[in-house]
Design a protein that fits this description.
Length: 175
């Protein structure tokens, strides 16, 4: 190769690398976050006591769900928590708490059960008088039947912790 062709080859390589870097940088700048945020006119939120329409027969879970929601929103601090008359209102109801056996093969002994908890949530904009969303959030947990009620109760609590985290994320990020 001659000195001239070697120089042209290097310049071409530099141009291609520069072009590639430019495309990558420009394309990287085109990314946009699709999640939303809390509407700017909403500053406060009132969280109603969670209702229990599950017919599970243990009213303690509505109190646990209520306290978990309050704790999540208090710790997040995106919206100021108020007792009533908030710019936004969060209403929720436990619609089901069910358990079922995990699929077994013939001859197997049941060792684990699947628990499913569903919470129906309405996020209401009291300033504009409209529902922002109404959704059902569900979590499934597994628990060993050998530990009976204790393991089931822990599975319900874990499911409610997951659901309340999802509710907070939906409210503050519009996911």
């Amino acid at each position: 190769m001659t000195k001239f062709s070697l120089c042209c080859h290097c310049q071409l390589r530099i141009c291609l690398v520069s072009l590639l870097l430019s495309v990558v940088l420009i394309a990287g700048g085109c990314y946009s976050f699709t999640g939303g945020s809390v509407p700017p006119h909403l500053k406060t939120i009132a969280i109603a006591t969670v209702a229990d329409r599950s017919s599970f027969g243990q009213p303690i879970w509505r109190e646990v769900a209520t306290q978990l929601l309050i704790e999540r929103f208090r710790n997040d601090n995106t919206l100021q928590l108020v007792d009533r008359d908030g710019d936004a209102e969060l209403r929720a109801a436990i619609t089901s708490i069910t358990e079922e056996p995990v699929t077994l093969r013939p001859g197997e002994i049941e060792r684990e059960r699947k628990l499913r908890v569903s919470l129906e949530v309405e996020y209401f904009d009291a300033v504009k008088g409209r529902t922002i969303f109404r959704r059902t959030f569900t979590s499934e947990q597994f628990f060993p039947i050998a530990q009976a009620a204790t393991a089931r109760d822990q599975a319900i609590r874990t499911a409610l912790e997951q659901i309340t985290a999802d509710v907070l994320l939906a409210v503050v990020s519009d996911w």
